[in-house]
Design goal:
Helix content is about 95%, strand content about 0%. It is built from one helix and no strands. It is rod-shaped.
Length: about 100
Amino acid sequence: MVPGRALEDVLDDEESSDKTDLTEAVERLSDVLRDVESEQKNLHLRLQRNHQTVSSNESRVFYAGLLEGLVVVAMGIFQVLFMKQLFAEKNSNFSGGRMGV
């Protein structure tokens, strides 16, 4: 065996192990990158779905609030008219009865 030849074999083995380590590192990075891209895609889809839900709920809340406000105003108007009528009837009953006395 040639002593120089053994050294070349050792160097070739070290280079191949370095290449193997580098290849493994690149593969790990590639896997991590795929995981990150997948997670980003999932988060983006979830964000879109949540935005649609918020938009839908926003319009429902707006119209429910508008309806509630109209009901409160209508009840207020009804109460004012009812009280006016109630006091008008009581005043006419009291004043009519006193005049005859």
